Amino acid sequence: MPEHPAVPLDEVDRRIIAELVGDGRLSVTTVAERVHISRAHAYSRISRLTSTGVLTRFTALVDPVKAGLKSSAYVTLKVSQHAWRELKEALRAIPEVEHIALVGGDFDVILLVRAEDNAGLRRVIFDQLQSMPGVQDTQTFLIFEDLDNR
User: Fold this and answer.
1) What is the mean pLDDT of residues 14-32?
2) Which of 73, 77, 84, 130 is such that its CA lies 20 to 30 A from the CA of 25?
C-alpha cells in the first residue's frame, strides 16, 4: 500500500476543517468569518487542503431510515490471503455497501451495509458477500440505532 505522507496542518487549517466537517455547504466567506481570516486567505487554505488530499470531497449526510434504508449491519469478512485487490473492487460495486475498511484482528474486512429491509440485507450477505471468491467467513452485527457523532 503506498505511503501517504501527512500534510502539516496548523491551527487555522484545523479550524477550517472543523467548520467544513460541521457543514460542508458553508461558503468560503462564512468559513473566513468563523475562523477570523480574510476570504482570500480562507480560499487559498481550502484550495491547499483540497489539492493535498486533506479534504477529499464535500458531501451530504443522509438519514438512512428516512431515505428508506431501514435495515443496517456491520458485516465482517475473513478473506483469503491474496484476495483483497480483486475483492475490494467487487465490494465497491455493491450499492448497499456504504463503507469498506481493511482491518487487523480477528477478521480482515468490515463493511457497513444498508438495505431497504431485512430481506435486502439478507440478499446482500447470503447471495452476494458469501458467494464472492476469496470470502471465507462472514459475521453480521445488526444495527438497532445509529447515532451521529457530530
Assistant:
1) 94
2) 73
Residue 3 lies in a domain: no
Q: Which of 41-50, 81-90, 91-100, 132-141 has the lowest mean pLDDT?
A: 81-90
Q: What is the CATH number of the domain that holds 124?
A: 3.30.70.920
Query: Which residues, including other chains, have CB under 8 Å from residue 19's CB and lie 6 or more apart?
Result: 26, 30, 31, 34, 35
Walk across the sheet containing 109-115 and list its strands.
Answer: 97-102, 109-115, 71-79, 135-143
63 found inside a domain: no
Tens of pLDDT, residues 80-109: 989 998 999 999 999 999 999 999 999 999
The average pLDDT across 115-137 equals 96
CATH code at position 19: 1.10.10.10
Amino acid identity at 66: K
Query: Does position 1 have pLDDT exceeding 50, yes or no?
Result: no
| CA triple 78-84-87, angle to 5 deg | 90
